Amino acid sequence: MRNIVLALVGITFFMGCSEENKETSPIEKTVLPNIVWLVAEDQSPEWFPMYGDTTIALPNLQMLANDGVTYENAYSPAPVCAPARSAIITGMYPTTLGTHNMRAHASWRGVNNEPTIGIPSYSPVVPEGARMFTEYLRAKGYYCANGPKEDYNFEKTDAAWDESSDQRHWRKRKDGQPFFTVFNFKVCHESQIWKRGKDSLFVNPKDVPVPPYFPDNDTIRHDLAVNYSNLKRLDDQIGEVLAQLKEDGLYENSIIFFYGDHGGPFPRHKRALYETGTKVPMVIKFAANMDAGSRDDRFLSFIDLAPTVLSLAGIEPPKVMQGKAQFGTFEAVKKPRYTFHASDRFDAVYDRLRAVRGARYKYIKSFNADLPHALPVTYREQMPTMRNLRALHASGDLNDEQAAWLNSPKPEEELYDLKKDPYELHNLAAVPALADTLLFYRKLLSDWMTKTNDLGGFPEKELLAKWLPKGVQPALPPLEMEEKGDSIVLLSKKSDATIVWKRPQDSIWSVYSTPLPNKVSFEAKAERIGFIDSDTLRYRQ
Question: For the segment 237-246, what is each residue's pLDDT rounded down to a tens digit?
Answer without folding.
Answer: 999 999 999 9
